[in-house]
Amino acid sequence: MNTQPGNNDNNELIGEEATLLIVDDDGPFLRRIGRAMESRGFTVELAESVAAGRAVIKSDPPKYAVVDLRLSDGNGLELIEEIRAAREDTRIVMLTGYGNIATAVNAVKLGAIDYLAKPADADDVFAALTRKPGEKVEPPENPMSADRVRWEHIQRVYEMCDRNVSETARRLNMHRRTLQRILAKRAPR
Protein backbone atom coordinates (compact mmCIF):
# COMPACT_ATOMS: atom_id res chain seq x y z
CA MET A 1 0.00 0.00 0.00
CA ASN A 2 2.65 2.51 -1.02
CA THR A 3 1.40 5.68 -2.65
CA GLN A 4 2.73 9.17 -2.92
CA PRO A 5 1.40 12.04 -0.80
CA GLY A 6 -1.40 14.00 -2.42
CA ASN A 7 -3.27 16.41 -0.17
CA ASN A 8 -1.51 19.81 -0.18
CA ASP A 9 -3.26 21.11 2.98
CA ASN A 10 -1.98 18.17 4.99
CA ASN A 11 1.52 18.29 3.46
CA GLU A 12 2.22 21.42 5.52
CA LEU A 13 1.33 19.55 8.73
CA ILE A 14 3.24 16.36 8.01
CA GLY A 15 6.25 17.77 6.13
CA GLU A 16 8.13 16.55 3.09
CA GLU A 17 8.96 13.13 4.47
CA ALA A 18 5.56 11.56 5.05
CA THR A 19 6.46 7.90 5.56
CA LEU A 20 4.05 6.19 7.95
CA LEU A 21 4.28 2.68 9.38
CA ILE A 22 1.03 1.24 10.78
CA VAL A 23 1.31 -1.99 12.79
CA ASP A 24 -1.92 -3.71 13.83
CA ASP A 25 -3.05 -7.35 13.72
CA ASP A 26 -6.68 -6.38 13.02
CA GLY A 27 -6.56 -6.62 9.20
CA PRO A 28 -9.75 -4.70 8.33
CA PHE A 29 -8.90 -1.88 10.77
CA LEU A 30 -5.31 -1.78 9.48
CA ARG A 31 -6.37 -1.43 5.84
CA ARG A 32 -9.09 1.12 6.66
CA ILE A 33 -6.76 3.36 8.69
CA GLY A 34 -4.05 2.89 6.03
CA ARG A 35 -6.35 4.15 3.26
CA ALA A 36 -7.48 7.06 5.43
CA MET A 37 -3.88 8.10 6.18
CA GLU A 38 -2.96 7.84 2.49
CA SER A 39 -5.83 10.18 1.66
CA ARG A 40 -4.33 12.64 4.16
CA GLY A 41 -0.97 12.67 2.39
CA PHE A 42 1.09 9.90 4.00
CA THR A 43 3.09 7.23 2.18
CA VAL A 44 1.84 4.22 4.12
CA GLU A 45 3.52 0.91 4.92
CA LEU A 46 1.32 -1.72 6.65
CA ALA A 47 2.42 -4.52 8.98
CA GLU A 48 0.21 -7.08 10.75
CA SER A 49 2.80 -8.35 13.23
CA VAL A 50 5.84 -7.40 15.29
CA ALA A 51 8.03 -9.36 12.83
CA ALA A 52 6.62 -7.52 9.80
CA GLY A 53 7.01 -4.19 11.62
CA ARG A 54 10.64 -5.00 12.42
CA ALA A 55 11.33 -5.74 8.76
CA VAL A 56 10.00 -2.32 7.72
CA ILE A 57 11.92 -0.56 10.51
CA LYS A 58 15.19 -2.23 9.45
CA SER A 59 14.75 -1.53 5.74
CA ASP A 60 13.37 2.01 5.92
CA PRO A 61 12.71 3.59 9.35
CA PRO A 62 9.54 5.72 9.06
CA LYS A 63 9.08 9.37 10.02
CA TYR A 64 5.69 8.50 11.57
CA ALA A 65 4.37 5.31 13.16
CA VAL A 66 1.08 4.04 14.60
CA VAL A 67 1.59 0.87 16.63
CA ASP A 68 -0.99 -1.37 18.30
CA LEU A 69 -0.09 -2.49 21.82
CA ARG A 70 -1.13 -6.15 21.63
CA LEU A 71 -0.10 -7.98 18.51
CA SER A 72 -0.45 -11.66 17.68
CA ASP A 73 3.31 -12.27 17.94
CA GLY A 74 4.32 -9.82 20.67
CA ASN A 75 4.00 -6.40 22.21
CA GLY A 76 3.97 -3.08 20.37
CA LEU A 77 6.10 -1.51 23.11
CA GLU A 78 9.03 -3.54 21.72
CA LEU A 79 8.56 -1.85 18.36
CA ILE A 80 8.60 1.63 19.92
CA GLU A 81 12.08 0.89 21.28
CA GLU A 82 13.25 -0.45 17.92
CA ILE A 83 11.86 2.53 16.00
CA ARG A 84 13.57 4.92 18.44
CA ALA A 85 16.88 3.04 18.04
CA ALA A 86 16.62 3.23 14.23
CA ARG A 87 15.39 6.82 14.04
CA GLU A 88 15.10 9.28 16.93
CA ASP A 89 12.80 11.80 15.21
CA THR A 90 9.96 9.38 14.45
CA ARG A 91 6.59 10.52 15.79
CA ILE A 92 4.96 7.42 17.28
CA VAL A 93 1.36 6.96 18.41
CA MET A 94 0.41 3.88 20.44
CA LEU A 95 -3.05 2.38 19.77
CA THR A 96 -4.82 -0.20 21.87
CA GLY A 97 -8.16 -1.76 22.66
CA TYR A 98 -6.89 -2.48 26.18
CA GLY A 99 -6.22 1.09 27.26
CA ASN A 100 -4.81 1.77 30.68
CA ILE A 101 -2.78 4.59 32.16
CA ALA A 102 0.21 2.44 33.15
CA THR A 103 0.75 1.25 29.59
CA ALA A 104 0.27 4.77 28.26
CA VAL A 105 2.93 6.08 30.63
CA ASN A 106 5.25 3.25 29.62
CA ALA A 107 4.69 3.97 25.91
CA VAL A 108 5.46 7.66 26.39
CA LYS A 109 8.59 6.86 28.41
CA LEU A 110 9.78 4.67 25.53
CA GLY A 111 9.21 7.48 23.04
CA ALA A 112 5.59 7.54 21.89
CA ILE A 113 4.14 11.05 21.53
CA ASP A 114 0.56 9.98 22.20
CA TYR A 115 -1.60 7.03 23.20
CA LEU A 116 -5.07 6.43 21.75
CA ALA A 117 -7.67 3.89 22.81
CA LYS A 118 -9.49 1.96 20.09
CA PRO A 119 -11.73 2.53 18.37
CA ALA A 120 -9.75 5.60 17.32
CA ASP A 121 -10.78 7.11 14.04
CA ALA A 122 -8.50 8.47 11.32
CA ASP A 123 -9.04 12.06 12.45
CA ASP A 124 -7.85 11.21 16.00
CA VAL A 125 -4.78 9.42 14.64
CA PHE A 126 -3.94 12.23 12.21
CA ALA A 127 -4.36 14.86 14.96
CA ALA A 128 -2.09 12.90 17.30
CA LEU A 129 0.60 12.43 14.64
CA THR A 130 0.62 16.11 13.60
CA ARG A 131 0.13 17.78 16.99
CA LYS A 132 2.84 20.32 17.68
CA PRO A 133 4.96 19.87 20.83
CA GLY A 134 3.29 21.62 23.76
CA GLU A 135 -0.09 21.81 21.99
CA LYS A 136 -2.83 20.91 24.46
CA VAL A 137 -5.33 18.13 23.90
CA GLU A 138 -9.02 18.78 24.51
CA PRO A 139 -10.17 17.39 27.89
CA PRO A 140 -12.45 14.34 27.66
CA GLU A 141 -16.19 14.96 27.56
CA ASN A 142 -16.82 11.88 29.68
CA PRO A 143 -14.33 11.48 32.56
CA MET A 144 -13.49 8.02 33.93
CA SER A 145 -15.97 6.23 36.16
CA ALA A 146 -14.98 5.07 39.65
CA ASP A 147 -14.80 1.48 38.34
CA ARG A 148 -12.44 2.61 35.60
CA VAL A 149 -10.24 4.51 38.08
CA ARG A 150 -9.98 1.34 40.21
CA TRP A 151 -9.14 -0.72 37.13
CA GLU A 152 -6.48 1.81 36.10
CA HIS A 153 -4.89 1.64 39.56
CA ILE A 154 -4.75 -2.17 39.40
CA GLN A 155 -3.19 -1.98 35.91
CA ARG A 156 -0.58 0.55 37.11
CA VAL A 157 0.48 -1.66 40.03
CA TYR A 158 0.50 -4.69 37.70
CA GLU A 159 2.85 -2.87 35.29
CA MET A 160 5.06 -1.68 38.20
CA CYS A 161 5.39 -5.34 39.30
CA ASP A 162 6.58 -6.30 35.80
CA ARG A 163 3.25 -8.01 35.09
CA ASN A 164 3.77 -10.48 37.95
CA VAL A 165 0.28 -11.51 39.13
CA SER A 166 1.37 -12.91 42.51
CA GLU A 167 3.40 -9.83 43.44
CA THR A 168 0.63 -7.49 42.26
CA ALA A 169 -1.98 -9.38 44.30
CA ARG A 170 0.25 -9.19 47.39
CA ARG A 171 0.77 -5.43 47.01
CA LEU A 172 -2.93 -4.80 46.46
CA ASN A 173 -3.87 -7.08 49.36
CA MET A 174 -6.06 -9.05 46.98
CA HIS A 175 -6.51 -12.77 46.30
CA ARG A 176 -4.49 -13.89 43.28
CA ARG A 177 -7.49 -15.50 41.53
CA THR A 178 -9.59 -12.37 42.00
CA LEU A 179 -6.81 -10.31 40.41
CA GLN A 180 -6.54 -12.76 37.51
CA ARG A 181 -10.29 -12.42 36.84
CA ILE A 182 -10.00 -8.62 36.87
CA LEU A 183 -6.99 -8.67 34.52
CA ALA A 184 -8.77 -11.00 32.08
CA LYS A 185 -11.67 -8.57 31.61
CA ARG A 186 -11.77 -5.51 29.40
CA ALA A 187 -11.59 -2.11 31.01
CA PRO A 188 -14.86 -0.74 32.40
CA ARG A 189 -16.26 2.39 30.74
Automatic annotation (TrEMBL):
Give residues where 4-aspartylphosphate occurs. Answer: D68
The molecule here is called: ActR/PrrA/RegA family redox response regulator transcription factor
Q: What is the lineage of its organism?
A: Bacteria, Pseudomonadati, Pseudomonadota, Alphaproteobacteria, Hyphomicrobiales
Gene3D superfamilies recorded for this chain? 3.40.50.2300, Homeodomain-like
Q: Which InterPro entries match?
A: ActR_PrrA_rreg (IPR047772), Bact_response_regulator (IPR050595), CheY-like_superfamily (IPR011006), Sig_transdc_resp-reg_receiver (IPR001789)
What domain of life does the native source organism fall in? Bacteria
| Domain Response regulatory: from-to ranges | 19-133
| Keywords, ordered alphabetically | DNA-binding, Phosphoprotein, Transcription, Transcription regulation, Two-component regulatory system
